[in-house]
Design goal:
397 residues; six-stranded antiparallel barrel; globular; binds guanosine-5'-diphosphate; binds magnesium ion
Length: 397
């Protein structure tokens, strides 16, 4: 029988860090599951899209595991790509998490995306971080101790300054229970369940297998998280900016209206859901509209309750002193008029041209409209050597 998870506190945890440091392996060690793996990912051995997995955290005696004992928490996980070219995807993933596990391989130490992901967490307002010093089986005790000191030094003055550092071998399952204990004891953020529902879409899918009979077809599915409010089966929702189309050479966006047919939290079906944890919402939309992440970056809410989309956005912005995500540590210039910047607002990614820059206030004309709220945190990237690199943070004003 399916467990009733509706009474359990939920935590959505992102697994972040440099490529090959063992994020996907750790997720498997934590949950016993592999996040859904796409054929391209199998072929290349790297995570390309956001992956999901879930587990019920259980207490048995003094220890924690995901198999036996009293259910104490429901954990959902987001596996993000560590590849430098997939920074935008990482930022979308970071938009839906409550906390992060930063994976650092003990044999490699701090790498560009270790630094960049840590600043990305700050840019997305994530303050709860646990550090996993992974691949501990590959290094001597001396190297592990040295690496530990380097990590402690690295996090000084950041959101992870007081984060616990847990030595782990994800591959051999060593100390994974220590990590579960930290996740069990981590404070669950307070949730706004009264507000107007706001669902941020990180992925969208067609979950039907080829050849499914028409009367058995599922509707289009949205994957993401509720930032506030509650949604339930039967609710009429709208999705913005929605579908894009070209009208006389100009991109336009059309709000999509649909109905919620079912809601899943990981492997569990629920009638109603609030904030915390990732969700998959099955809609009455044709799956053609939701396939291949067609609606990722959108937001969904009850019909008539979402703000208008905007093409011009004003943010209070600041930049770092140097680029974190490269080996070459380029200096970062001030934002100025005509700068092209990539913004990450909630799960959406948009490129904008700076039209006004005065002191801390930067105004941009965006190529893709966003739905934003005052105070939303914004990740700001600039093209450095052909890739979007995170260069600063902002807040919608
Ligand atoms: P990701 O890119 O961060 O998701 O890294 P993966 O989980 O794909 O792991 C990259 C490689 O490191 C794979 O070959 C894993 O088997 C290996 N790996 C992961 N964790 C460990 C570990 O704790 N010890 C050792 N020796 N290898 C590991
Ligand atoms: Mg991976």
């Amino acid at each position: 029988m399916a467990e009733d998870i509706s009474k359990l506190p939920v935590l959505n945890v992102g697994i972040v860090g440099h490529i090959d440091h063992g994020k996907t392996t750790l997720l498997h060690a934590l949950t016993g599951r592999f996040a859904d793996v796409h054929s391209e990912e199998l072929k290349r051995g790297i995570t390309i899209k956001l992956g999901y997995a879930d587990a019920i955290l259980r207490k048995e005696g003094e220890g924690y595991n995901v198999k036996e004992g009293e259910a104490v928490r429901y954990l959902t996980f987001v596996d993000v790509p560590g590849h430098e070219m997939l920074m935008a995807t990482m930022l979308s993933g970071a938009a839906i998490i409550d906390a992060a596990v930063l994976v650092i391989a003990a044999n490699e130490g701090i790498k560009p995306q270790t630094r960049e992901h840590l600043v990305a967490l700050a840019a997305k307002g994530i303050k709860k971080v646990i550090i996993v010093q992974n691949k501990i089986d590959l290094v001597s005790k001396e190297v592990a101790m040295k690496n530990f000191e380097i990590i402690k030094d690295f996090v000084k003055g950041t959101v992870a300054e007081d984060a616990p550092v847990i030595p782990v071998s994800a591959q051999q399952g060593i100390n994974v229970d220590m990590l579960l204990k930290e996740l069990a004891e981590m404070e669950v953020p307070s949730r706004d369940i009264e507000g107007k529902p706001l669902f941020v879409v990180a992925r969208s899918f067609d979950i039907n297998r080829p050849g499914t009979k028409i009367d058995k077809l599922s509707g289009g599915v949205l994957g993401g998280a509720l930032k506030r409010g509650k949604l339930k089966v039967g609710d009429e929702i709208e999705i913005k900016p929605g579908l894009s189309f070209k009208d006389k050479g100009v991109m336009k966006y059309e709000t999509v209206r649909t109905k919620i047919l079912s809601i899943r939290r990981g492997t569990y079906e629920v009638e109603e859901a609030g904030p915390g944890g990732s969700l998959a919402i099955e809609t009455s939309l044709d799956m053609f509209l939701t396939k291949t992440d067609n609606l990722s970056g959108c937001v969904a809410g009850l019909v008539g309750e979402l703000p208008e989309i905007v093409n011009r956005l004003k943010i209070k912005a600041s930049h770092f002193s140097e680029v974190e995500g490269t080996e070459t540590h380029e200096k970062i210039d001030d934002f100025r008029i005509n700068d092209l910047l990539m913004l990450s607002v909630n799960t959406s990614i948009s490129v904008g041209k700076v039209v006004n820059a005065k002191d801390e206030e930067v105004e941009l004309d965006l190529n893709i409209p966003v739905v934003s709220f005052k105070g939303d945190s914004v990740g700001i990237a600039r093209n450095v050597g052909g890739h979007w690199r995170l260069v600063g943070v902002g807040e919608v004003v």
